[in-house]
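Reopening this ticket.

The earlier resolution said the output was attached, but the attachment link was broken on my side. Pasting everything inline this time so it's all in one place.
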Amino acid sequence: KPLELLWHSLDEWLVLIATELMKNKKDSTDIASILLKQKGQDQDGTSIPPFEPPGPGSYENLSTGTGESKPDAFGGKQEASADCQDVISMTANRLSAVIQAFYMCCSCQMPPGMTSPRFIEFVCKHDEVLKCFVNRNPKIIFDHFHFLLECPELMSRFMHIIKAQPFKDRCEWFYEHLHSGQPDSDMVHRPVNENDILLVHRDSIFRSSCEVVSKANCAKLKQGIAVRFHGEEGMGQGVVREWFDILSNEIVNPDYALFTQSADGTTFQPNSNSYVNPDHLNYFRFAGQILGLALNHRQLVNIYFTRSFYKHILGIPVNYQDVASIDPEYAKNLQWILDNDISDLGLELTFSVETDVFGAMEEVPLKPGGGSILVTQNN
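Inline output:
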C-alpha cells in the first residue's frame, strides 16, 4: 500500500507540473502570435513608435507622462512564466530523488537485473516532464537518475542529454554507481591470499586465463585482481596491466575465430562463423568477463568494436545506418533502395543475404522463407 500511495502522489505531482508547462507553453505561443501580428502591421505600413531609451529611474517606475503606471502587454505572462520555471527549479531535485527511491522500491519486487514494467511505464508516461527536469539541470541525471544505468530502454530516452555532458562527468557517474557499497578495489595495497592469485602460462595465455578465470570467485575478481605468470616472480599492477594488454590482442586473434575486422580496419564484430571453434561459446563468455573486469578496474584494452555491437551489448535497437561501420558500400546500397522506387528495376532482391563461409558463398534467410520472398516497394 505505501508503494501505491507513492505511485499516485508522484503521478499527481508530475501531471500537475506537465499542466503548468503546457499552460506556460501556450502563453509563450500567444506572446509570439502578438509579436508576429505587430511585425505584419509594420510591414503593411502601419507605423510603430520608435524605441526611446528610458531615462534614469525608468526601469524602477515605468510610467506615462501623467504619472500613471504604463500597462505591460506581456508582463503578467512573463511573470507567470518565471514563476512556473521557479516552481520547476524548486521541485525538480526533490521529485527526482523521490523517483529514484520509487525505482528502488519497485526493484525490491523484481528479480535481480530486471526493471519493473510498472516503473518503465511510469517514466514513459512522464517522459516530457522528466526531460524538462534534466534539460534545465543535467546534474539531476548524475545525482538521482541512477536507474538509467540499469535499464537500457530508459537510458535510450535520455541518451541525447547524457551524451551532451562532459565525458569525465559521465565516467564518474558510472564508476560511482558501479562501486557503490564495494570495498577498495586496489588489491595490491592489501594482503593477497595465495589462492586468489591467477596463475597463468605466458605461452598459452588465452586458454590458461580462460580456465583460471572460469574457476575464480567472481565477487573477489570484482574486488581486486592479482596475476602471476607461471615460472615468474613478478606481481602487482604492472603485471595486471600487461595481462589485460596481451588478452585484449588475443581476444581478436583470428586463430580463435571469435571476431572479424570490419571494413574500416579498426573495429571488430562477432564472427558469424565462430562455430568452427568448438570452444567458441566458452571463449565468448571469457572475453566478456575480461572486458567487464577491465571496465570494473579501469584497465585500458586495445579493442574497438563496431557501433552495432555496442548497441547489442547495451540493449539499444540497431538500425540499418549502423551497417555503415561494418560495410559502407552495403549501407550505401540499402540507403539507395530506401530512397528510390524499385518496383520496375528488375533487381529481384529477396529477404536473404549471401555470406562468405570460408571461401564458399552461402545464402542466409533474413526471415523464415526469406529466400523466396521478393523485396517490393510495399514490403
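Reporter confirms the inline version is readable. Confidence is low (pLDDT under 50) at residues 28-32, 46-82, 185-191. Residues 321-372 form one domain.
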